[in-house]
Amino acid sequence: MTFWTDPINFIAVWLRGLLTGWGLGVDLANILLALLGIIILIVFAMVLDIILVWIERKVVARFQNRLGPNRIGPFGIFQPFADIVKLVIKEDITPDGADKVVYNIAPVLAATAVIVLWAILPLASTIYGVDLNVALLYLVAAGALGTLSIVMAGWASNNKYALLGAFRMVATMISFEIPMVVVLLIPTIITGTMSVKGITEFQGGGGVWIFILSPLAAVIFIISAIAELGRAPFDLNEAESEIVAGFHIEYTGMKFGWFYASELLHSFTFGGFIAILFFGGYNFFGLEKYPLLGVLIFLAKALFFYWVIMWVKYSMPRIRIDHMLAFCWKFLTPLSFVLLIVTALLNKLLATSNFYLLGMFLANAGIAWATIEILRAYARRQRNPENATQPPPPYREVPEGGDPTPALNLSKGSNPLLGAEIPLPPKCGGSQ
Amino acid sequence: MSIPLSWFLILSAALFSIGFFGVLARKNAIAILLGIELMLNAVNINLVAFWRYLDPAKMAGQVFAIIVFAVAAAEVAVGLALIVSVYRRRQTVVADEVDLMKW
Amino acid sequence: MTPDQIIFILTAALIISSALMVVTTRNLIHAALWLVAALFGVAILYAVLNAGFFVVVQVVVYIGAIAILFIFAVMLTRREMRDRGPQLRKNWWLAALLGMLAFSGLAFLLINQADINRSAAVIPAGLDTLGALGAALVSPDLYLLPFEVASILLLAALIGAVYLAATRK
User: Fold this and answer.
1) Alpha-carbon dihedral of residues A401, A406, A408, A411, nearest 10 degrees?
2) Is residue A182 exposed (0-12), middle (13-18) or buried (19+ Cβ within 10 Å)?
3) CA-to-CA distance for A210 and A224, rounded, in angstroms?
4) Which residues, 6 or more positions from A369, have their beta carbon under 8 angstroms from its beta carbon?
5) N or C: which end of chain C has fewer CB within 10 A?
6) Which residues, at least 6 apart from B84, have a Cβ–Cβ distance to it below 8 Å?
7) B20-70 pLDDT, tens per residue?
8) Higher pLDDT, A126 or B20
9) Does residue A62 contact residue A54 with C-beta atoms inside 8 Å?
10) Integer CA distances (angstroms), A312 to A107, A280, A306, A322, C77, in order
């Protein structure tokens, strides 16, 4: 083991020798090394986050035919630092009537939900935080923490827009978690392990990318990941034109900064997971033998899928919430279940066959084709004037003379959450 | 692992009793459900601890715990749906005020 | 004191104090959030018990689904977002007494139990507990039937909850 083939472990072994040489116990040395590793990983993620801000701004500018930041440093590369300085020196406001503790914990939890994901990301064959045997469930569990942070932010802000944004976001995240979990089972079935590292190793060294075995699963995963991230076209949680900024409307300064930073890092991390689960992770034609190259390959792949997520974000219009939930429950969920059943059956039937790869791919292609045919038939029926559905009712009757407040549809029955009323301002009179 | 089994059992007994207190003493029906969740978790700690301390090769404890998870999820879903439904009709979630069936 | 004993005591303190907050705090949203803290402590205990699967399932099911449902239910059944007035019944002291009795009874039974301070069994080398759990859940001579019954229970609960909470047109 030399420095160039395995730098992290080389340094770890050296440090452990150094620490035990100083008279520390082996356990204590290991704990110290683990803490050091955690700190380095978090610092790495946060530095990457700073670069992501610049990338995001540059890429969105290009999509919108602008130049983007170009004043500070070459290509505006120092723009994020100016952003951070601005965020740090802004006034830090806690709104009146906010639930102070919950309000202040929420951004921390939002950042935590992302950073804990880095524990299971295998950056290279020898560079990873921990090789969990339930890593895919861990991915879902971290998403649960993110949901909680959004509920807390929305509720504690004491702001109706924030609460609406949180409600929408939670409806989205809980709904899209189902196709996501189902689709996560497909790499699990194919590779026989839930460990992210095991899935990556399956795809390296002569194995094929799971994308080739199950392209449909990759597509469903990308869609539900985008929904889970709350990015356009599923960005109803912060729909600027409807509810201003959603759950983080009241946050200023660095507290907003944490939400923003964790959103970007979350997108990048999910880009990384797409790369790992379906596109081979750090594997690239045998180059993964050198861990440092493996890290570069992994980051390049993750950046590519981050770019795909941005590409979708900046070219799609926002979807209405009922359309979005209907899309999840009536389309994505059944499709993913069908895919899961077919994959599980074929994986068992073709396990020893020579046509394993071809069979899997063709099954996916067949399901995709059938789905498109069903959708086409449905669209044809909808277009038929006899079956045309009524146009949706107007959101609210605006009284003569105009009502300057935005028309929020809070009437009973229009709320997709349990179909119940969203709490309105206190009404006069008692209960009953 | 150098923790005696009794520590887990005592902790779980304490958690169970706290949940029991919550169920008995709370007015709000949702808070009563919160107490039930605490009790179910206490049971789960016990089950997993017995699995770990008696025979890890036998999966009975873990399987039981999983079924408790499923029951807890079902119970919360139906319980909260009932509470929301009651609230919609009677505008109250105080368990004592839902007394139509009481003579 | 070994490190895992220290971890256990800290976690137990977290669980007990959050559980007490769950049953006594006035603000119901706070009660739900304290419940999250208590359940998180239970997840740490599962990690201490080498049950990795339960750690993540605890977070997914309890924190990701059940706690969120509670928060929603609290918000949906509240005209005002603040809770005023006492949240405990008038005879809460009786409940406290019963809780104490339950705890002391259980503790008494436990302490008098033989072999209660046994230490953990050794996990056999090469035992894949996750794989063994999965196999146990789907093998017909072990727990296939309870597993299926649980799934039917969940399906029934899903339908029932949708039916109960749906708005009648």
Assistant:
1) -20
2) buried
3) 17
4) none
5) C
6) A418, A420, C73, C76, C77, C164, C165
7) 998 888 888 888 889 999 999 999 999 998 888 888 888 888 888 999 988
8) B20
9) no
10) 26, 22, 10, 20, 38
- Candidates A142, B78, A186, B64; CA nearest to C60 is A142
**Cα distance between residue A392 and residue A321, in whole Å:** 13
Residue labelled with tokens 């609210």: A396
- Asked if A125 and A283 touch (Cβ cutoff 8 Å), the reply is no
Q: How many domains does the structure of chain B reveal?
A: 1
Task: Please state, in angstroms and rounded to a whole number, the distance separating the CA atoms of residues A73 and A374.
Answer: 53
Mean pLDDT of chain A: 80
Least confident of A30-39, A136-145, A242-251, A421-430: A421-430
- Give the type of residue at B3: I
Burial letters for A124-148: b for 16+ Cβ neighbours within 10 Å, e otherwise?
Answer: bbbbbbeebbbbbbbbbbbbbbbbb
Please compute the mean of the pLDDT values over residues C72-97 and round it to a whole number: 73
- Which chains are adjacent to chain B, needing at least 3 Cβ pairs under 8 Å? A, C
Residues A109 and A145: beta-carbon distance below 8 Å: yes
Burial class (CB in 10 A: 0-12, 13-18, 19+), C159: exposed
DSSP, collapsed to helix, strand or coil, labels residue B26 as strand
Which single residue is written with the structure tokens 């794989």?
Answer: C131
Q: How distant is the Cα of A92 from the closest Cα of chain C, in angstroms?
A: 24
Whether B88 and A432 lie within 8 Å, measured CB to CB: no
- Pairing mode, strands A127-128 and A122-124: antiparallel
Q: Model pTM? A: 0.83
Query: Taking residues A228-257, what's their average pLDDT?
Result: 78
> Which of C53, C63, C130 lies closest to A145 in CB terms?
C63
Nearest 5°: phi and psi at A124? Answer: -155, 175
- Residue B9, in any domain of the structure: yes
Inside any domain, residue B102: no
Place of tokens 């699990």: A188
Tokens 């997520």 locate to: A309
Sign of CA dihedral A246, A251, A252, A257: negative
Is residue B89 within 8 angstroms of chain A, CB to CB? no
Maximum alpha-carbon separation in chain B:
55
Best of C54, C63, C78, C167 to substitute, by most chain A Cβ atoms within 10 angstroms, is: C167
* Separation of alpha carbons B66 and B60, rounded Å: 10
Residues in A touching B92 (Cβ below 8 Å): 431-432
Look at residue B49 and tell me if it is in a domain.
yes
Q: Which token pair is A77?
A: 């590369």
Q: CATH number of the domain that B83 lies in?
A: 1.10.287.3510
Angle, to 10 degrees, between the axis of helix A160-191 and the axis of helix A215-229?
160
Which chain A residues are Cβ-neighbours of C68 within 8 angstroms? 144, 147-148, 151, 170, 174
Write down the residue that tokens 């949240």 correspond to: C87
Band the pLDDT of C41: cuts 50, 70, 90. very high
The per-residue pLDDT for range B7-23, each reduced to its tens digit, is: 888 899 999 999 999 88
Residues B45 and C45: beta-carbon distance below 8 Å = yes
Q: Which domain does B41 fall in, by range?
A: 5-97
In a domain, B24, yes or no: yes
Q: In terms of pLDDT, which residue wins out, A13 or A406?
A: A13
Contact criterion met (CB below 8 Å) for C22 and B34: yes
Residues β-bridged to residue A98: none
pLDDT for position C81? 47
User: Within 13 Å and on the Cβ side, how many CA atoms surround A212?
Assistant: 8
Confidence of residue C80 (pLDDT cuts 50, 70, 90): low
